[in-house]
Specification:
alpha/beta, flat, 11 strands, three-stranded mixed β-sheet
């Protein structure tokens, strides 16, 4: 009987480490597509032009090249756009001078006074396990893959790309038992102190939540707490495309209705659904998170790509990347 118990325990341990071992056995280079778009900004470029270029190319971030230092020094992301709007916006009647005139290097000088940012990157030979750890530990959404020999950026690695890579090769990986369990049972996701925004609140208030809570999307809710839309950081960059960033006093309902671009939509999940169902849904919908709701559509939590990668890859290794 003791032998059977020991076998069961070891089999369970092997079962739990399937995805972790998959990530450790593949390198970042494996995930790089044969053809992809990569835009790089010089730090002397005007901030406004850079954000317009992100919109025009359908991108969320770009590596920054410092010609004086002759190296990559960071990333320009939608977070920068949000921080600029939040820091300098006064009213619809006052032009945001800093957005109109600042160069990227000027903004970085201002921003870096308040934060200790440095370029976090990874080599193409590093394992996907290391990539997942870096993404979660440093709470970043973009990880440049830099060739150590040439110093060139080869690709920008994301949570979505890594999970999709795993999903593509899932037929080669034994299906672990734990993905048949319910997400509420596994405790995957954020269930307390959920950041939401009322549909009657202003867009500037939503930006304040993005800055203060460091979340990537906000469920827009009605008075009953029912989710009516999802407003993400990516939606904010489209204010540049529509040139509507001068009026952040509009309501969230209006901001949601003004979106003309691709809208991620509210892709939901329920506490009693299995981890496998949630993974399939988030990969097929190509979204960054699911809104966890009850049967009345009241928001009960958020299940993000970070939550899934933590549970599938880092937790079996005894690492809690989300709270580090």
């Amino acid at each position: 009987m003791d032998t059977q118990k020991n076998y069961g325990a070891s089999h369970s341990e092997i079962d739990a480490t399937v995805y972790m071992n998959f990530m450790k056995s593949h390198c970042c280079y494996d995930t790089i597509p044969t053809s992809c778009k990569l835009v790089i900004f010089d730090t002397t470029l005007q901030v406004k032009k850079a954000f317009f270029a992100l919109v025009a190319n359908g991108l969320r971030a770009a590596p920054l090249w410092d010609n004086k230092l002759q190296r990559f020094v960071g990333m320009l992301t939608i977070t920068d756009f949000i921080n600029i709007l939040h820091r300098y916006y006064k009213s619809p009647m006052v032009q945001i001078y800093e957005l109109e005139s600042h160069k990227i290097e000027t903004w970085r000088d201002v921003y870096l006074q308040y934060s200790n940012h440095f370029l976090i990157s990874i080599s193409p030979e590093a394992s996907l396990f290391d990539a997942v750890y870096s993404l979660l530990k440093y709470k970043i959404h973009r990880l440049p893959v830099i060739d150590p020999a040439s110093g060139n950026v080869l690709h920008i690695l994301t949570h979505k790309r890594i999970l999709k890579f795993l999903h593509i090769f899932r037929g080669m990986v034994p299906k672990p038992q734990f993905i048949q369990r319910q997400i509420q049972e596994l405790g995957i996701g954020t269930f307390r102190n959920i950041a939401t925004v009322q549909q009657t609140a202003t867009l500037y208030h939503a930006l304040s939540i993005f800055v203060e809570r460091r979340v990537s999307a906000l469920p827009v809710v009605d008075k009953q707490g029912k989710v009516v839309a999802l407003y993400s950081r990516f939606d904010v960059i489209n204010l540049a495309a529509q040139k509507t960033y001068g009026n952040l006093d509009m309501t969230m309902l209006e901001a949601v209705q003004r979106r003309r671009c691709f809208v991620e939509g509210v892709i939901k999940c329920y506490p009693d659904e299995t981890l496998e169902t949630v993974i399939d849904r988030i990969v097929k919908a190509e979204v960054h998170r699911l809104v966890l709701v009850d049967r009345a559509d009241v928001v009960r939590g958020i299940v993000s790509l970070s939550d899934l990668l933590q549970a599938m890859v880092l937790t079996p290794a005894g690492i809690d990347g989300l709270s580090s």
